[in-house]
Amino acid sequence: MSGIHDFTLASARDALKSRKISAVELTNAHIDAIERLDGQLNSFITRTPDQAREGAKVADEALAKGEGGRLCGIPLGIKDLFCTNGVRTTAASKILGNFVPPYESTVTANLLKDGAVFLGKLNLDEFAMGSANLNSAFGPAVNPWKRKDSDAKLVPGGSSGGSAAAVAAGLVLGATGTDTGGSIRQPAAFTGIAGIKPTYGRCSRFGTIAFASSLDQAGPMARNLQDCAILLESMAGFDPRDSTSVDTPVPNYEASLKRGVKGLRVGIPKEYHVEGMPAEIEALWQQGMNWLRDAGAEIVEVSLPHTKYGLPTYYIAALAEASSNLARYDGLRFGERVSAPSLDGLYEASRAAGFGEEVKRRILIGTHVLSSGYYDAYYLRAQKVRTLIQQDFLKAFENVDVLLTPTAPSGAFAQDEKPTDPVQMYLNDVFTVPASMAGVPALSVPAGLDARGVPLGLQLIGKFFDEETLIAAGHAIEQAAAFHHRPTIHAGVSA
Amino acid sequence: MSLDAKTVTRIARLARIGLKPEEVETLGQDMGSIIDWVEQLKEVDVTGIDPMIGTGLAKPRLREDAVTDGDCRDKVLSNAPEREGPFFTVPKVVE
Amino acid sequence: MSYRITGNTGEWEIVVGLEVHAQVVSEAKLFSGASAEYGGEPNTHVSLVDAGFPGMLPVLNQECVAQAVRTGLGLEAEINLFSRFDRKNYFYADLPTGYQISQFAHPIIGKGKVLVDLADGSTREIGVTRLHLEQDAGKSIHDQDPTRSFIDLNRAGVALMEIVSEPDIRSPEEAGAYLRKLRQILRYIGTCDGNMEEGSMRADVNVSVRKPGETDYRTRCEIKNVNSIRFVMMAIEVEAQRQIEIWEAGGTVDQETRLFDHVRSETRSLRSKEDAHDYRYFPDPDLLPLVIEQSWVDELKAALPELPEAKRARLEAEYGVSRYESSVLCVEQAIADFYETVARGADARLAANWMLGDFFAALNRTGRSIEDSPVSAEGLRELLGLISNSTINGKIAKEVLEDMVETGDSASVIVERKGLRQVTDTGAIESAIRDILAANNDKVEEYKSGKDKLFGFFVGQTMKAMKGKGNPALVNETLKKLLSE
Lengths: 495, 95, 485
Known about the structure:
The complex is a heterotrimer of chains A (495), B (95) and C (485).
Chain A: H1 9-17, H2 23-41, E1 44-47, H3 49-64, E2 75-79, H4 106-113, E3 117-122, H5 161-168, E4 174-179, H6 185-191, E5 194-197, E6 217-222, H7 225-235, E7 265-269, H8 279-294, E8 298-302, H9 310-325, H10 343-354, H11 357-370, H12 376-396, E9 402-406, H13 422-426, H14 433-438, E10 442-449, E11 455-462, H15 467-481
Parallel strand pairs in A: 2-3, 2-4, 7-8, 7-9
Antiparallel strand pairs in A: 1-3, 4-6, 5-6, 5-10, 9-11, 10-11
Helix pairs in contact in A: 2-3, 5-6, 9-11, 9-12
Chain B: H1 5-14, H2 21-38, H3 73-77, E1 83-84, E2 87-91
Antiparallel strand pairs in B: 1-2
Chain C: E1 5-7, E2 10-23, H1 62-74, E3 82-83, E4 86-89, E5 99-102, E6 112-117, E7 123-135, E8 139-141, E9 148-152, E10 159-165, H2 172-189, E11 201-210, E12 221-226, H3 229-248, E13 257-261, E14 266-269, H4 271-274, E15 282-283, E16 290-291, H5 294-302, H6 308-319, H7 323-329, H8 333-343, H9 348-366, H10 377-388, H11 394-407, H12 411-418, H13 426-439, H14 441-448, H15 454-465, H16 472-483
Parallel strand pairs in C: 12-13
Antiparallel strand pairs in C: 1-2, 2-10, 2-11, 3-16, 4-5, 4-15, 6-7, 7-10, 8-9, 11-12, 13-14
Keywords (chain B): ATP-binding, Ligase, Nucleotide-binding, Protein biosynthesis
InterPro entries (chain B): Asp/Glu-ADT_sf_sub_c, GatC
Protein name (chain B): Aspartyl/glutamyl-tRNA(Asn/Gln) amidotransferase subunit C
């Protein structure tokens, strides 16, 4: 069988170029799928079908003339953390109310310039704070996968949970995500798709709502790495409006798929064998090593001694920055305002009503670690430990080209299995956070299913700006894993 | 260890987040357990280590001194919850 | 002579440090491309960066950095090649992001100094602790509505230099002299227009008092946002008085922020602002550390204009003007330039005399500034030339200058038009004097019997008779001769 929902982004692109299919057809098929299935998934916060159809029409005109950018006519979903000109942007928070940005983020502007068609804004954890997409003011996004033995709703991971669910279910051909401590890689692993967190500074942060400025990085999420490579090539690039953007050319990422891994040195960080890790995750990891070895790579054990401090360091640094970044949501210039007779009363009421529980908790912790008398003990110390974490990676990369680890310590869990202790919840990010702290690129590829039929991912971590080697190694795993499973809820499956 | 109500209230006041009394208690517990957990960083020897500022990849860059932005009052005010003519408005601030 | 305030328990010394916020002269704001120009319709000089919209990011303006470095050079200060921007977190209606980007831990400029001249002719060195770059806030307007404040963000994000002095100031006079000198330096370099009415220069004043001889500082109070030099001087005086009264009554001064009310001539506590201050400074993760090259600093230094102290020294050496004259002539660069144009090709001492005297008086009278002076430097030079070559005397020259101001005619045209050329014909002078002496026989007798003071009377009468045109030296000489006959 080969229907419109079997297209990958790459094959759709080729079919559009050769006029086997029109952009309007492709877009309409996806709009239909969203209407059909998103009631169950809640992956969209805002749908923009009219705008999408309009964009598809324009794309068809360009394609008919043999013109159009590399994404001409490709329907995508946008994480609702990217500001989109004239389209409501919420960060999944009540506090932004009906905020309609009069500007476009650099990343989405790049995609539009290349001809992409936006189907709407995708669900996420409020302000990207979470690992299960349960912290959304618009309700949780739901994983299209189900366990073999249960109908329980599984989480799609977070914070880019809506992006992951929509891609996995075939509602979009690709999506943008953002990753602060694992928010692209962990949901990609939970939903059986691929996702790349590029090097910090690779994609502009301009126009993307900030969680933690020194960590936030946009990246692609799609069904495979070829699709991710195509998207990343469009999203990436220097932007003078972001002082942390790096001025280095964007390579042809798609071409790097074919590089292979012969002679590649793959590091296995011994500290990632954490206590209590499920056997099937260990087994999958071993499988990944075997696949890469069989493809010609050399497997080398390495040490990242400060790994165990990654999470606490991350939470101090990220929450401190977040407490300051979210101060602008005060009910004065945009977003929800709760009236009060005094200015301070207005601030306190608006922020109390506008922010969800987890966001409040994080703002308060971030405020605490920066406050007088605590700064040195927490924030300053954490930034020093962060230097040590980065040094661990730089040292390891003197000896190896990429690192291989599991993406997450478990597969997707059910909504009602969410740990009540916030620290337990944070442990989800244990493998993804260190690379974020160091600023190095990392990706997740689907590698298999766990015993209950839920997808698991493997993570590859690379050198600064060496996304190409990362993609090459990831593609070797993709080929060996031959992951062709589909979730229970999918556009290509008739209900 | 749970953070006491006074501390939670002071932090919430700094962050301008109004809390209900029952929230003060649960937040105190949550924050306390997170703070306890991050305490493990105290074991790390950071002697002589510089704090990380940025990832060290981008080169310092300065903008040319030219007026390239602004003059967009409609955009600036387009999302204002309350305004009066060309101004944002807030409850009167008494100096 | 040290400044002292006498209280009930004896004399007190005051200790003052100033934090001056000087608006940087630049086209665009510190971190956005919106105009930094003063004024404008409300909320028009505002970009979405300044208004703190989601996802907006700061990018540093190079010229603002250059202006800070130039100022640092003008204060003979350490230039820090590494500096950093921190966030100062607090909520206020005119602070859109909820934090001010400032330089807390690593300012761009370190220790420097300002030399100030005092009225008694002495000079003092006031230390500068640091100078850093930061953003201005917007403006809250409180008087337009009974229940609401209006917010205008035009100023939000404009670059400021905060220049912090050491607590070296010991009198209101020194505070005033420091501010005037600082403003003069900033104007010379062109880094701040120093216009206190438009708020482009404001001062926070830290005041404490102590007994002479005490080496430790007592608790200080900070008087926020004083916007004129006169008010700074007044505020110091009344605040010191207030503190002395507290100490003398056996109380203690609380460290706090206060406001100066010039109408009631008192300072008032701003306790509301004190409420739980905890700025939670941390490095702004949206910006990289600011690293500048020594070679760039050197280039900026080479391009600096001559600074006030150097200019004074040169004027004194080159033109022989006094220390006092050089201070007045160098208040503004334009005045010094004007002076030098006059002095080159005229009697330089005479030129200084005339500028400080009749010329400034004429400017004052007409309400003009040096830039739009009714008399050009060349015109004044011509007038002084006429004195030097004895075409007219000093007294007539005053009349000519007034005519120049009024008509715009040149000095020589006026002299010809009015026939003011001075009389150097000794015969005419002698005949005029003889007439005067003949008419005042009694006075001549008195003079001869020892009343020397009457000489001035005879000079006056003679000049009057000659309609002021007599050559003063010849008149004197001839009078002496005839009176001794």
